[in-house]
Design a protein that fits this description.
globular, 55% helix, two-stranded antiparallel sheet, mainly alpha, single chain, two-stranded antiparallel ribbon, 474 residues, 19 helices
């Protein structure tokens, strides 16, 4: 008999990493090491170094995840999540948070410290990505090209890890493949190829810059808050970019006026937040280990409603002022400078600080959906539709609920799912992104994501069992 044998469901003596897992970690570690060495200006051949870094990170992560999850029995394993320093706000978690936050600060406001030189040859970290940028569009990389590449690699590598972990749940497999494809093609390859074909971000032979517009077709206003900025509208109408520029203008307007409300009515905001959005894609893949850190407190819910709707009002007012200034050819509205009063504060406070620095940098402290839950105006816009005019809901079979709390623990939006399940009440919340993890981790099949008739989706069950009483509904 084994000396460590026990009857515990969650084995307190888990198996050590096998040789293949260690090899995978070593390969991924080499890839990360190349990135850090390049940041320190170690003379590494850029093409070779970038290849080693990207292939190492993707390949090593895939090998490690395959061996980690494929040798486990069926079922989603979250054993020990509250005992790991990295994902339980321990020392490693705080170190990771500080590193991520510091990287975003440098990326947004001090790109010269990662090697970006707009008036000369790039150095260090950014220079490592020059060969790939030259391949796509024939010019050196910027800090945003570096960021876009790393962002895509993170979703791809950790998305594969997610697929192994949730391999027995078809809904998780489908939506994860969807966000990987959306990021890889719609957000990364298509925009870079269009730039390479001179349909965007082009300077003429005479040195005239023709302008830039966002060619990530799924980046929809109000999330894409600068869609109506003067430079953006002018670039989409630039003659050299036609017919692509006007096509993006038409699609961009149609997306928030027609596509978003229609799809949200039929399937809820999950079509965007959990299936195509880049922010949601990173949260669901790289942020998956941190989902249990979202606060379930009532005070957090109150703060959430004030913040997300406050940001939404802010972007609406800012956009109204911007459109007014564009069509009336003025830089002021009601005596207020449009750029200094509306655009600049929004860009700094929301576009950079909230969505980037806090939204990703605080994963290890506040969970993986900080931005989506508290600040994203797109989520707020769709949330209102989902709450009051949608067919989507999560149904509950209260009679089967054993109050284990898995659903609430792993809800990245901080919804107390168990409270609804115990009462057998439909979950119709503006903040729900329809990730389906609550349903996936439920051991009794209590929860189900459904699209059904609007009628009665808000109705309470005939019998409500509360903390102090049992109430019969009329």
């Amino acid at each position: 008999m084994q000396k460590d044998a026990n009857l515990s469901i969650a084995n307190p003596h888990p198996k050590d990493a096998d040789v293949w897992q260690k090899l995978g970690l070593a390969i991924a570690g080499v890839g990360l090491l190349v990135l850090f060495l390049s940041w320190g200006n170690v003379p590494i051949p850029a093409a070779m170094g970038l290849t080693i870094a990207l292939v190492g990170i993707i390949g090593g992560t895939t090998l490690y995840a395959y061996r980690l999850y494929m040798r486990q029995p069926a079922g989603i394993k979250n054993n020990g999540v509250w005992f790991k320093s990295l994902i339980n706000r321990g020392a490693l978690g705080w170190i990771a948070g500080i590193i991520l936050t510091g990287f975003y600060v440098l990326l947004y406001w001090y790109p010269e410290y990662i090697g970006y030189k707009p008036n000369g040859a790039n150095e260090g970290f950014v220079a490592l990505f020059d060969p790939l940028s030259q391949f796509f569009k024939g010019k050196p990389a910027s800090q945003w090209f570096l960021y876009g590449t790393l962002y895509t690699v993170s979703i791809l590598a950790l998305g594969i890890k997610f697929l192994f972990k949730y391999r027995y749940n078809s809904y998780q497999l489908k939506r994860t493949v969807s966000v990987i494809i959306a990021q890889l093609f719609l957000a990364y390859l298509v925009p870079e190829i269009l730039a390479g074909l001179n349909y965007n971000d082009v300077s003429t032979a005479q040195g005239e810059y023709l302008g830039y517009y966002d060619t990530d077709i799924k980046n929809v206003w109000p999330l894409d808050y600068d869609f109506f900025y003067e430079y953006h509208l002018d670039a989409m109408q630039q003659e050299a970019y036609q017919p692509v520029g006007v096509l993006y203008l038409i699609i961009g307007i149609a997306m928030f006026l027609l596509v978003t409300p229609i799809l949200t009515y039929y399937v809820g905001k999950r079509w965007y937040c959990s299936w195509v959005c880049g922010c949601g894609g990173l949260a669901e893949t790289a942020g998956d280990p941190f989902r249990h850190l979202s606060s379930k407190k009532l005070s957090a819910w109150k703060l959430e409603r004030w913040l997300i709707h406050g940001v939404m009002v802010f972007v609406f007012v800012m956009t109204a002022a911007t459109v007014y200034g564009y069509f009336w050819n003025t830089g002021e509205v009601f005596g207020l400078n449009i750029y200094n009063t509306f655009q600049k504060p929004y860009g700094f406070l929301i576009g950079a600080t909230f969505s980037g620095v806090i939204g990703v940098g605080f994963y290890p402290m506040l969970g993986n959906r900080v931005w989506c839950r508290f600040g994203c105006p797109m989520a707020g816009y769709m949330g209102i539709i989902q709450r009051f005019k949608s067919r989507f809901r999560i149904t509950t079979n209260g009679g089967q609920c054993i109050s284990c709390g898995n659903c609430s623990t792993y809800c990245e939006q901080g919804i107390d799912v168990r409270a609804y399940a115990q009462k057998g009440q439909n979950i119709v919340r503006a903040s729900c992104v329809g990730c389906g993890i609550c349903s996936a981790v439920c051991p009794r099949g209590v929860l189900k994501l459904e699209n059904g008739p609007e009628e009665k989706r808000h109705d309470l069950p005939p019998i409500i069992i509360g903390n102090k009483s049992v109430e019969l509904q009329d």
